[in-house]
Amino acid sequence: MGHVMDRESTSGSALGHGPGAGGGTPAPSRRIRRGATAVAALLTFAAATSCASAYGSAGSGTPSHEPSPGSTASVAADPSSTRISAPHLPRPTGSQPVGTTSLYLKDTSRVDPWVPGTKARELMVSLWYPAKSRSGKRAPYMTAKESELILKGEEIPGVPYDALSRTRTNAVIDAEPAGRRHSLPLVVLSPGFTEPRSSLTALAEELASRGYVVAGIDHTYESLATTFPDGRVTTCVACEAPKDQKFWNTVGRSRAADVSFALDELTGAHPKWKGALLIAPSRIAMAGQSAGGASTIAAMLKDTRVRAGINMDGTTFAPIPDGGLSRPFLFLGTQAMHSPGGKDTTWDRDWAHLTGWKRWLVVTGAEHASFTDTALLVEQLGIYRNPGLSGERAVEITRSYARAFFDLHLRHKPQPLLNEPSKRYPEVKLCDAEPKTCA
User: Fold this and answer.
1) Which end of the chain is more exposed for a tag (fewer CB within 10 A), N or C?
2) Residue 374: its pLDDT value, please?
């Protein structure tokens, strides 16, 4: 199977890994379920091929091909009543305009872990940041080719191959950055396995509107489609590898190295972004979903520049060393999968080794993909909806709690939201690991 495609190629052979985002009953019809599976799994926002569902039961670290146990009962939306021509992301709630740009980074100090024949590790990174003006062209969510590679080969009724590329964003492409020298905190975002950096755009735009610089990393050859400036499109070579413990350890080490290299390129002596001097190098944090959430711990253990982290529904790769991790950390996951003493025990294991500020939150009704843009986009496309938690509500919750965490630990602003149950967000439960309860 090829792993680099020319811009004009129409082959979809790189797609088709993994089961769909599973659910209980009531089950959607076979045809609609297949469409939902393709969107929820193959459009790179997948639950089932992401880290948490790739592991076996009880957080054993043993790979499985079963659907995510964290999924709630799911039904197909009625295409005739809900499909719209162009999906859109909700507007950020902050007061600042949002700009975005993409960076091509090349790490010549290491070979690629998935294609060892290459002499360097190549990365695409998207930056979102406060901008001086709202005027200008809206940034694309992804390219038409990326959307095609993600959707092609699956029978998804009524969804053209470029549907995802038509998603309306809120950021202005290549807008002039705004801010004072070394004033803006930096948050790194790492997506789930098979997912592109664009799958966390709603969260990135929200943080940027609140005065953060956000760096979303495409982990090359783990994403189903990554476009480089010269027109190459890489696909998911890592999807072809056996999903054993050695594989997930490689994912964790590789992503941690990707994060450290991106930080070098953004905060070093010769930064790759014209607005890099706005970044406060002492105020850096990270969040990730699924494999990206697990990689947050790996990155923090490797690089002390990452001062705080969030794991959004990711089964972790390897235990935290006995010395522990003393920097602030937040678990944010599905109630079904990640409650204390639940199906994934890696969070219970890691909790004891988190020796600094920590919180454990679960969201009632959430599915594995609820912490990305997935649920919202597939709802708007009229293909799939989660009756336990709407896509719009999932985005609101994810944004609110991530923003509160970063405001507390990078800006030292008190956040009562993180200390007690909220009437505004009754779906979110604060967990106590000792009695294994959430309220």
Assistant:
1) C
2) 84
